[in-house]
Write a structure and sequence with these properties.
Order of helices and strands: EHEEEEEHEEEHHEEEEHEHEHEHEHEHEE
CATH superfamily of the largest domain: Vaccinia Virus protein VP39
Shape: globular
CATH architecture of the largest domain: 3-Layer(aba) Sandwich
Number of helices: 10
Distance between the termini: 68 Å
Number of domains: 3
Oligomer: single chain
Strand order of the largest sheet: 16-15-14-17-18-20-19
Structural class: alpha/beta
Radius of gyration: 23 Å
Number of strands: 20
Largest sheet: 7 strands, mixed
CATH topology of the largest domain: Rossmann fold
Length: 396
Amino acid sequence: MVEWENKHARIVLKKGRARSVNNFHPWVFSGAVERVEGAFEPGDIVAIHSFDDQFQAKGFINPKSKIFARIISFEDLPIDRRFWRDRLQKSLAFRHRHLARFSNAYRMVNSDADGLPGLIVDRYQNYLVIQLSSLGMYRLKPVIIDVLRELVQPLGILERSESASLADEGLSPHKEVLWGNIPDRILIQEYGIKFWVDVVHGQKTGFFLDQRENRWRIGQIVHSDTLLLNCFAYTGAFSVYAALKGAQTVSVDVSEGALELARENFRLNGLHPDAHRFVVADVFDFLREMENEFTFIILDPPAFIKKKHHIQKGARGYKDINRLAMKKIYPDGCILTCSCSHYMNWELFQKVVFAAAREAERHVQILGKYGHPADHPISIYHPEGEYLKACLLRVL
């Protein structure tokens, strides 16, 4: 019989430190822990009690991590295979009901927001890519894969656990085909537009699924007179949406391989890549040297702030890239500027955009603010789960 829980150990919180758990926050930090009673192994599932011995929750314990415990249930439920199956079933059913008609590529599980801390599952057609970022979930990998096979019946499951936070959990980066086979490229579609995705070697899990709605928005805004610059273009998804509406596009990225796949994505959608430009370059250098010719600029850089002590330096990077774009964009042009840095909150992001506009000496309006799409939910009790910020700007 599988032992899912360690019933011989429990976490006891300090007096007055159960408030965050009572407010359904899924993380318990070491500063809130009075003691651990009983023997345990890091990654075990244990009960969490208040100082006066009231049950609070159950979660993964890992004293090696900055997050001492990750809560999986605020109810005293048995943690067995049915528990994990129900959690996954609810998560998958929501995505299937609300997203499958628009795309066959979307996030099926979004970690803490779906009550599955340390687990991300992305679907690409009939293939799954998973990311594990907590020791407790890593130890449950066999049952998670078994349940995903039962519920989804995928042709292949790939693990890409490669985040920088793995070391905090005592884990190492890992990439492996866990089930079936994974082709070199997978054909996906969103809103009727097709893309090739390299899930093995591509960034994140192969595609920026979280930008789906912003790509659609760009497709609604641009027109045949638009000259669009797509910075950090990767495999050209924003450019394809714009080109299908008649815009002329320039896609800039440091990766020649990514831009080659971008050209193929143009061909896949009946577009002629020779009618557009693909530039292998550092985006900062390109923006400094380019002429004032673009009427629309996409700024979707990688995370400049990956750790808390990087905030000041990373904020400078975001300011510089926005300032360069604002100085060079054609009057009355638009910029979609994004940040995927968790530590860049909305207040700081708007301050950065303000500073960039001031230094560029341009009048700037905010036309819209956008965050996570529905397949990347954020728990109202866990604001730390929010990372994606995007502002649509008009530069006068």
